Amino acid sequence: MSVVSTFVWATFLFVSGATANGEELSPELKSKADQLMLRAVEYYRSVQAEDGSFGEGDYAPAMTALAITGILRSGQAPLTDPAVRKGLSFLEKFIQKDGGIYVPGSNNRNYPTAIALLAFVQANKDHHYDDVIKNAAEYLKSDQWDEKEGIDQSNPRFGGTGYGGPSKTRPDLSNTAYFLEALEAAGVPKDDPAYKRALIFVTRCQNLSGEGANDLPNAKLIDDGGFYYTPAQADYNPAGFEANGGLRSYASMTYAGLKSFIHAGLNKDDRRVKAAEEWIKKHYTLTENPGMGQAGLFYYYHTFAKALDILAVEEFQAADGSSHDWRKDLINALAEKQSKDGSWTNPEKRWMESDGRLTTAYGLLALSHATK
Q1: Residue range 189-203, pLDDT digits in tens
Q2: How many CB atoms are closer than 10 A to CB 248?
Q3: Residue 157 pLDDT > 60, yes or no?
Q4: Is 297 exposed, middle or buried (0-12, 13-18, 19+ CB in 10 A)?
Q5: Could you write out the DSSP letters of every residue in 220-266?
Q6: Nearest by Cα to 262 from 77, 5, 22, 41
Q7: Residue 325 forms beta bridges with which residues?
Q8: Average pLDDT, the chain
Q9: How far from the centroid of its chain's Cα atoms is residue 40's Cα?
Q10: What's the CA gap between 314 and 325, in Å, rounded?
Q11: Burial class (CB in 10 A: 0-12, 13-18, 19+), 247
């Protein structure tokens, strides 16, 4: 999708007067955001392990990649910075012959590969990582649920990606969103079948029934245009279920779903996009992750910022008619929540958000998109 078409889409979806990416913040707000990001980068310097990592075990490559991507996108440290170089060197140790980037023997393969690809794209100013990025994209496509898994389009798993690895229990929207973001960042052409397959899965993560929408029976049980985690495991949904068995929508997945629609090439007139727009207009807030309370709050901040940034939205108009400067709102929310050491942590421990090495990356990424 071109910058021009994205701009037109943003204007259509939200409020007249929206401007294309690159709108400058006020000097005061930009300075505030820069200080928040600088403190976060200093936090990372203080907690980086000797081997360059920001985590342990199978999640170390992904957590390190998130941190490095956030640091580089923040503009507060150059590619030559020792912490960045050490982090990249750590990630390079996990580049496998099959193109994946993961801990050997781990069941967690697709997730770190997608996130590490994004980090290497940020660090690829001299084309040093061209082959790594290309091979990682091919690996990601090979891990997508499709005909090679012995399933066809009638299967709710079709087109999605999960954490990966030999077990491959089921795909989900969070991993599929990273998958699509990584393919686009790697420059995979939009006519690649992987996008079309992924679009089928993402559509089945939306509570929207009818022509051209979710064709699974559960879609009509709520039908509010929001998104849930996965259609591939009927007995699991982080936001819970309605009395009729419908999977409740929640915000972090709805923003992830909306940006995935964009990455997959949908246009502004598609009813799936319009339905997602209506849901987020009804649930605009930065005090919680709507549908989940405080759980996953910082992951929500980063999907919120990514989606609105890619839509080139400057002023957000909610369903009640109120207008919001989402960038200012996000910067202020993160300013209130930053710890003295520069980190962000969530008292709600679900999804590892009590670990500042992970959650600080979400904060940095959110700010990097808010200040673009």
Answers
A1: 999 999 999 999 999
A2: 18
A3: yes
A4: buried
A5: HHH-SS-B-S-SS-TT--TT-B-TTSPBPP-HHHHHHHHHHHHHTT-
A6: 5
A7: 315
A8: 91
A9: 19
A10: 6
A11: buried
Q: How far is CA 169 from CA 54, 95, 100, in A?
A: 27, 23, 18
- Structure tokens, 144: 């997508």
Q: Could you write out the DSSP letters of every residue in 130-142?
A: HHHHHHHHHHHHH
| SS3 at position 187 | coil
Q: Which two tokens stand for residue 29?
A: 């707000």
Q: How far apart are CA 21 and CA 312, in angstroms?
A: 5
- Phi first, then psi: give them for residue 210, nearest 5 degrees: 105, -175
Pick from 288, 163, 320, 290: nearest CA to 233: 163
Average pLDDT over residues 83-97: 98
**By CB neighbour count within 10 A (0-12 exposed, 13-18 middle, 19+ buried), where does 27 fall?**
exposed
How buried is residue 365: exposed, middle or buried, by Cβ count under 10 Å (0-12/13-18/19+)? buried
Nearest alpha-carbon partner for 119 in 168, 178, 172, 47: 178
- Separation of alpha carbons 156 and 129, rounded Å: 35
CATH topology of domain 3-370: Glycosyltransferase (1.50.10)
Burial class for 56, CB neighbours closer than 10 Å (0-12, 13-18, 19+)? exposed
Give the long-range contacts of residues 50-55, CB within 8 A, separation 24 or more: 51/86, 51/90, 52/83, 52/85, 52/86, 52/87, 52/88, 52/89, 52/90, 53/87, 53/90, 54/87, 54/357, 54/361, 55/355, 55/357, 55/358
Query: Would you say 133 and 156 are in contact if contact means Cβ atoms under 8 Å apart?
Result: no
Segment 338-345 mean pLDDT: 97
**Are residues 324 and 276 in contact, defined by beta-carbon separation less than 8 angstroms?**
no
Q: What sign for the dihedral angle of Cα 109, 113, 116, 120?
A: positive
**Residue found by looking up tokens 């998104």 in the block:** 227
Encoding tokens for residue 369? 């998109």
Which 3 state secondary structure label does DSSP give 353?
coil
- Identify whether the C-beta of residue 117 lies closer than 8 Å to the C-beta of residue 136: yes
Q: Is residue 47 within 8 Å of residue 54, measured between CB atoms?
A: yes
